[in-house]
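Long-time lurker. I teach an intro course on protein structure, and each term I like to show students one example going from raw sequence to a predicted 3D structure in token notation. This year I'd like something fresh instead of my usual example. Would anyone be willing to generate the tokens for the chain below so I can use it in lecture? Attribution to the forum is fine with me.
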Amino acid sequence: MEIVQRMKMERKALLQKKAELERQLQAAPEGRIVCYRNGRYLKFYQCLRDDGREERHYLDKSKADLIHELVQKAYCQYELCDIDHDLKAINQYLKYWNEGSRLLDHLAAEPWLEQVEPYVTRKAKVEQWEQEAYPHSDRHPENLKIRAATGIRVRSKSEAIIASELHGRQIPFRYECRQLLGSVEIYPDFTILDPKSGDALIWEHFGMMDEESYAANMVSKLRLYIRNGYIPGVNLITSYETKDHPLEIGHVRALIGYYFD
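-- Reply from a regular --
Happy to contribute to a lecture. Here you go:
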């Protein structure tokens, strides 16, 4: 799903850029620029169409502003062509993705499905889980300032390390995905799908353990998890840090190795 979301965001940005370029071209002077080299010097001409014929008008130094505007117009036209090409490619991919059926849909109709090795159906479930949209946390979006290697934005460097290491090991995860624990709505740092077992795990990183109120809240949160079947060391991964003891990448890799190797 991540690549689809990124493509949609890129398409939106390209459409905005295209609209801006088109506004610039509407305000640009008529005709096109033609340039020839004459020894060490450049000679510029404005080409205008009249009754289907193109006429060239020499532009001397006094027309420097017009030369600049025509050059800018030509650049905008080339840039617009590139944007149209990129939009066509993105739209083709999104059209294929939207219309393409999932592997599980194919397998469900096959009578030999029960004879297939279990890892095949697990792989299909993992792929489908990765592609599905999910409800994100909307609290303080202005704090999502750190970009992880996956392209998503997170709230801290430590979360960026965790996201990047999970992505590097091809372990699918969702960042701040809504969970209901009993009647309590919660947004864990990472909800992870074990690619081997298909089981769901949660990873909470507690990054301010030297603050008393934060630590007290962490204890309450762990109690909530335990009451709802998430046990630290089993299906709940936890990591911690303070100002004097920041999270180290080696520790993150060790945790990933323990739970997923």
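Some talking points for your students: The longest strand covers residues 41-50. Residues 2-99 form one domain.
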